[in-house]
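Quick one: structure tokens for this chain, please?
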Amino acid sequence: MKDTSNYQQLAEIIKPYLPEDVKPEQVQEGSHLINDLNINSAHLVDIVLDVEDHYNIRLEESDMQQMQTVADALRIIQEKTR
């Protein structure tokens, strides 16, 4: 069950935070935010804040800890926006 609209929106949120050596096409559902996309911890916080603003949701510390991959983030967004 792939929600392409949420995936596309999340990919757009992530793209500005990618380092120069990572291409936007590398943002896939299975991509690990730190290991695969080389997103640093400060930018992870920015992504979380942008996700909260975009979806009008509140992410708890436990949600942030679970957000390891793009798919994890999508699952959390789906749970919070039901």
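The mean pLDDT is 94.
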